[in-house]
Queue: 2 jobs
Job 1
Amino acid sequence: MRIFNRSGTLFIGGVAASLFLIGCQSTQSSRVEEVEEAPVASPPVEVVTEVPSEQDIVRSGDAEMRELEEDLLLRKKTGDEKARSLKAIAKRLNAKLERFPEEKEWKLSKEGRTLVLKENSRIAFLDGIKVFLDRSLKKSGAYWSLGESDEKIILEPVFGVSATVSQVSTVVIDPGHGGSQDGTKNESLGVLEKEMTLDVSLRLSEHLEKAGFKVVLTRYDDRLVGLDDRAKMANGLKADLFVSVHFNAALNKEAKGLETYLLTPAGEPSSSSSEPGGDVVAYPGNRFDAANFELAYRIQSSLLERLGREDRGVKKARFRVLKSLDCPGVLAECGFVSNRDEGLLVSTAGYRERVAQALADAILEYAKSSKEES
Ligand SMILES: [Zn+2]
């Protein structure tokens, strides 16, 4: 409460609030006339919305208060309720924060984990793996700021202040496309995405069953299953995890590498969008934002380790298959069939087996972390 004592107006607000409380007590003792006389005209709610001036902050010697003030000031300056001061975040998480001016980078570290942030960019590196933030690290007045969703979904779980993962016993694997939907293709190599995804999913299912999980695929043969039906199937089975397997393609034949998607948090822009904001509505799948990130990160990291391909990052998109899930879920893009070299790799059983192993490793690690936490 000390914040209220440093500025005259705020302090008066505090007095008004006290009188208001006295007034309320009076009502209970039926002395109604005093309530009418009490100076309740400035309701205490206004006090809370007041923000200390910059001078107040300079005078403040109290680090804890200063953090709160930095966040408040930042929100006032930017008009952005979701802006969070990077320094304040680091303090809250008890993480070390370093700036590298020449590289225009910041590094947060704690207990062997590091997050490298780039100034004016949404791209960050978590223990060397590329991750897309919802908001760029940007300077507002005297402070560098990040977004609230990135703090909640990435920084807090990574630097150990919140548990995100729940127990896993049933896993639903979703081989992308099928039936009349071929997905992407490389005609010269004769590669159809729907065949590649089914093959990887069957292999993955074998690995997971061996490890003791109950595994169900959304399709076991070449048939069309609606996107909503895939999520419904997982929900009906009370799945603990959902992984959709895909391969990529692009008009630019040079494009290659691996990327893993989670559902974009409510009100935030997807990774492919440069516009701020996005669907404000929270989908059922958004209940698991932090777990979705954890799973996507583990899968991306494991795919890179097993396959050694280019890191295109952990990204966010509002994929329909992820929106209505009742459990954590992600969508993995396991290589570009449109790229000559990668397409050739994808067409080999050896590559697809390594994809399956990588996905299995990641799911096992994810499930193990839930056991450690519980
Ligand atoms: Zn696909």
Job 2
Amino acid sequence: MNKPTLGQNDTIIDTKIESIKRPCNDIGKEKKWSRNCPKCSKEIIYKTKSQKTYSSKINQICKRCSYNSRMTSVVLDRYCPLCNKIIHYRSKFKRSHSEKKNTKCKSCCIKGENHSMYGKHFSKDHRKKLSDSHIGQTPWNRGKTPFVRDEAKNK
Ligand SMILES: [Zn+2]
Ligand SMILES: [Zn+2]
């Protein structure tokens, strides 16, 4: 530090220089990078010049416009294969899933003849088979001491 001892006058000069050094403190129009959205012509403000030049290069639209276009481009409707009624889906995933499974609309699903188990009943033989299949399997809780609370033991 070659600076001489700081007197009161020196500090005043220092602060003056600092205020001159920082022109970005006052937000002038030069420091604001902005362009207008090509769709809604709303002003889009960018923090840096490079951001602005890049977005103008790719003709970027504002956040709101991009959101709207995204929402409209995704078709979340499909037609019921039975009654041709429009089925709305909340997400793209649900729609593609139901398309794969070829699901019908709600009102069609409720109808008895379209139910997967309509007219079908498990025969007695089938039920016996089911119960037989469980024979020989050890239940998960066999041989385990039941959990008793310490408080209950003391009582
Ligand atoms: Zn816009
Ligand atoms: Zn239907």
